[in-house]
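Hi support team,

I submitted a single chain yesterday and got back a structure, but I'm not sure I'm reading the token output correctly. Could someone confirm the output below corresponds to the sequence I sent? I've pasted both exactly as they appear in my results page.

Thanks,
R.
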Amino acid sequence: MMQSVQKQASLQQNVKIGMIEKVGYASGDLASNLIYQTISIYLLFFYTNIYGISAGAAATMIFVVRIIDAISDPLVGTLVDRTNTKFGRFRPYLLFWAIPFAGLAFLCFTTPDFSEGGKLIYAYVTYVGLSIVYTFVNVPYAALTPAITANNTEIVSLTSVRMIFANLGGVIVSYFVPYLSNYFAEFTSPSRSWQLTMGIIGAVGALLLLFCFFSTKERVKPINEEKIKFSDIFEQFRKNRPLVVLSIFFVLIFGVNSISSSIGVYYVTYNMGREDLVGLYTVLGSLPAFICIPLIPILNKKLGKKMLLNLSLILSII
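Hi R., thanks for writing in. Yes, this is the structure output for that exact sequence:
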């Protein structure tokens, strides 16, 4: 039995991943970023300037949704760990949640003719729903990489292609969302133009998630089938110091990114008085990635993961 497990592990480490599968896998992050970046950058602006919710109410709602995220993420992670289907452990979530993800994003940019209180309730329901569905897509997608291959070199390559596509999604959102909303605004109302724009972005995102599902394969099977309980998460936080440090890091980095993403459109529109530069402003933040990310596999071989991470953090601090 032990020899069989060792042989399986050896075969998994020697698997080479074709470029079609790498692109297919990376398409999942492109899809998520098309929808999620649109939400992160433009939803607050849409709520306050188009939908008519006060800035305070909209900001409070986004804070509440983030709290719900903090609760739903480990719950979904626990559920994913217990999943076992003919499609694998992680890929089924891409198949079954792709269309709901796009549909709720479309509903977030829909403006029903409700009272002020009704508008706020509708915004809460659609945004919370979108956030939960995004968790059902993103958590298993993030866990899919080591299920595709156990080869560390291939994992770095997969991740590099994924990050290029993720940043490509940011560039597309930065440029095309303002362009499409302004284009549709010439023929219809501002609220309708945003709805149509999100409809296009959501449809493309759903198709890319489905492409990710059909073009990838889960080869690496978990050797230890012990089921993880929700309470195990808190036990890990008590014992696992690197996990705590990494979690704090993600809180800080995503906090900074969220602030810079959501206020950028306001800054360019009101402080600079140049609404026409919103697309250029937001796209500039994604361009350096296209230079740096292709270098990651080379730098990883020369420096190692830890040194590469430390140098990246120093650069980010500067």
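A quick pointer for reading it: Residues 1-11 have pLDDT under 50 and may be disordered. Let us know if anything else looks off.

Best,
Support desk
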